[in-house]
Amino acid sequence: MAECGECGPGYKTPLDAMKGPREKIIYLPCIYRNTGINKPDYLATVDVDPESPFYSQVIHRLPMPNVNDELHHSGWNTCSSSFGDVSKKRNRLILPSLISSRIYVVDVGTDMRAPRLYKAIEPVEVYWKCNLANPHTSHCLGNGEIMISSLGEPSGNGKGGFILLDGKTFEVKGNWEKGNKIPALGYDFWYQPRHNVLMSTEWGVPKYIADGFNPADLTKGRYGRYINVWDWTTHAFIQAIDLGEDSIPLEIRFLHNPDAAEGYVGCALSSAIHRFYKTEKGTWAAEKVIQVPNKKVEGWLLPEMPGLITDILISLDDRFLYFNNWIHGDLRQYDISNTRKPKLVGQVFLGGSIIRGGPVTVLEDPELQCPPEPFVIKGKKVAGGPQMIQLSLDGTRLYVTTSLYSGWDKQFYPDLIREGSVILQVNVDTVRGGLTVNEDFLVDFGKEPHGPALAHEMRYPGGDCTSDIWV
């Protein structure tokens, strides 16, 4: 089995990727915006090799040159979409900044365990060449370019466009989208050339989500409700699938099999998972396949508390769907052998807002008989709830972080700001289904040199199931 790099970047198929080597290090951005610590965000390198003397420790920190960037989701310069092209290497990590609109390019190829800054793209480049701002999701394209979705435009209003970077020079080339019709909002995206489609989602208007969540903004159209469908060949926006006013569709994933014409999207506020699919007419549609019920509560922002699904992923064999409920505090595993009827097979509570003895009183809970206990590991009571998740290539380990976004962390989990976030590891039963916490693994970002940090989305050097797309 050829490892990543011997045949071009990544793996030939998703099932080949499952046979890849075990992850030994993880990269993830750590955020100081909104924490009261006036230091730059940084890229942390964490050792996750159980044979290493530095297991579950931060072994390197790469600070950015500026403060208040709000690093968020990262992506690669190239990935499995370019498998077979020996001229390409997965050696640069792309780090968009959600608030400052800077885009950093990090060299992880020279020294994998000690990344270094390669280039910084200043906001003015994005503003002038694309009329976009607030970059979010970065994906590598098969042609060598890099594509980054945006939440808005320079004035702080929403705009769901895409920034194109040259894969060699990392210069801003311009916009991917063409035509006058552009969605009002943006967030995540996934593309599938075999079905000539790109799907994008919507979070909210940047100037309104910057420092917290105001429920009144929902009825004013300031939060997302659509899956936006694009023609992959012409780059035209062709269809919007309405998921409802209170949905806020965030992470979107096609099944990994590039022939599959379906996938899932997680809706944060409605706490629903929708399956999207291609119809017989060639258009696209969606159906709700999972609904996490709200809990009636006292002592919280609203009288009904949603789960707040903020991240989802699909195992590389397209057998399991995983997602979190950041507010309720649980991580879930569903068997999706029947994609229209997901079956809950694993669940574990890792914190959240409904814990016993917390400030919230649960008055009515359709799912639980009693509140979960506070989650404590290695003597640390974990603040926040399960948020970003990443799965090992073989599907047997889930890594979980607890910070969503500094403005919302500050509002919903003030303890998280004071104590910092963590990385947890959850063992996965891939035969019968089931999730159990690895009690020996904890990365505590509450003990960082400059003070507690908010660690976010995770990447492995060899790629993973949320950054690799097979074409």
From TrEMBL:
GO cellular component, one term: membrane
Organism of this sequence: Alligator sinensis
Pathway assigned to this chain's UniProt record: Organosulfur degradation
Name of protein: Methanethiol oxidase
TM stretches of this protein: none
Keyword match Ribosomal protein: no
Family as reported in the entry's similarity comment: Belongs to the selenium-binding protein family.
UniProt keyword list: Acetylation, Cytoplasm, Membrane, Nucleus, Oxidoreductase, Protein transport, Selenium, Transport
Main subcellular location of this protein, as a coarse class: nucleus
GO molecular function: methanethiol oxidase activity; selenium binding
One BP annotation, GO: protein transport
Enzyme class: oxidoreductase
